[in-house]
Amino acid sequence: MPWERPASVPYPNVWWTFDAPDPDRDDGGLTTYRVEDLTEDRYDDAVKLYTENFLDDEPLCQYNRIRHTPVAYEEVVGFWMHCFSERMTVVCYKEGSKEMVGANLLAVKEINNSVDISKLIRSAGMQKLIAVNEYMTETVNLFERYGVDKYLTAYGLSVNNRYRGRGIATEILKARVPICRAFGLRLTSTNFTAIGSQIPATKIGFKTDLEMRYDEFVKVNPTYTFDGIKGTSIKLMSLVIE
Ligand SMILES: CC(C)(COP(=O)(O)OP(=O)(O)OC[C@H]1O[C@@H](n2cnc3c(N)ncnc32)[C@H](O)[C@@H]1OP(=O)(O)O)[C@@H](O)C(=O)NCCC(=O)NCCS
C-alpha cells in the first residue's frame, strides 16, 4: 500500500507565512506570502508553473530537453499529477493574489515501499533523469543512516521567474519543518540539483549526505553524460526535525 495522507491532518492547510519583497511594489516594501497545500482546482496552474518556471531552468530537465520532447513532457506531467493526487504538494501565494508564486512537489518515502516508476517511462531523457536521482538515494541508505522508516522527500522546487532572488525558495523550504511535525516525520531529504536550491537548503540547516558532480556520473555508467549542463553537482541533502 502506498503511503496515504492521514485524515487527521487538516486539508487544505496553511503551513507557513512570511514577509518578502514584492515585485509589484515600487516602494521596496515587504508583502506577506503563505505556503499551503495545493488543491485540485489549481492543478492546471501548478502544471503551468512547472512547465514555464522549472523545465527549462532546472539543470537535469533542461539538459534532457523534457519540455521539448513530447513523450518526455507527457511523462513528466503524468508524474506531477500523480504527486499532486497524494496531496503533499505545497504552493506559495501572495496575500490578496491568486497568482502562483512557487511550489514544492513533496512526497513521503517509506522503507520497503517504493514504487518503481522507471518501468512506466519510455523516453530516454526521463530515464536518465530518474537513474541519476536513484543512484543518489541508493548510494546513501537514508533509512539506515538516520534510523527512520519514512521521510519527506521532494521532486521539484520552483519559483516563478519574476519572484526569484527574494528569498522565497528559502521560505518554501522552511515549511518542511511544520509539515514534518504534523505528519510525525523526523527527516526530510532531497536531491538538490541546482545551486539556487542548494544555497537556500544550506541556509536553513540541510546537511549534505552525498555530492556528485555532473561530470562524475559517467564513471557510474558511460551513458550518464552531462556535457555542457548548466550546473555543477547534485547534492543529496537532509534536515533532521528535532
Ligand atoms: C532554484 C529556485 C527555486 C530558487 O528560487 P529563489 O526564490 O530565487 O531562491 P532564494 O532567493 O530563496 O535563494 C536563492 C539563492 O541562490 C543564489 N543563486 C541563485 N542562482 C545562483 C547562481 N547561478 N549562482 C550562484 N548563486 C545563485 C541566490 O543568490 C540566493 O542566495 P542569496 O540569498 O544568498 O543571495 C528558482 O531559481 C527556480 O525555480 N529555478 C528553476 C527550477 C530549479 O532549478 N529548481 C531547483 C531544483 S532542486
From TrEMBL:
Matching SUPFAM superfamilies: Acyl-CoA N-acyltransferases (Nat)
Molecular function as annotated in GO: N-acetyltransferase activity
InterPro entries reported for this sequence: Acyl_CoA_acyltransferase (IPR016181)
Protein name from the UniProt record: N-acetyltransferase domain-containing protein
Organism whose genome encodes this protein: Anopheles atroparvus
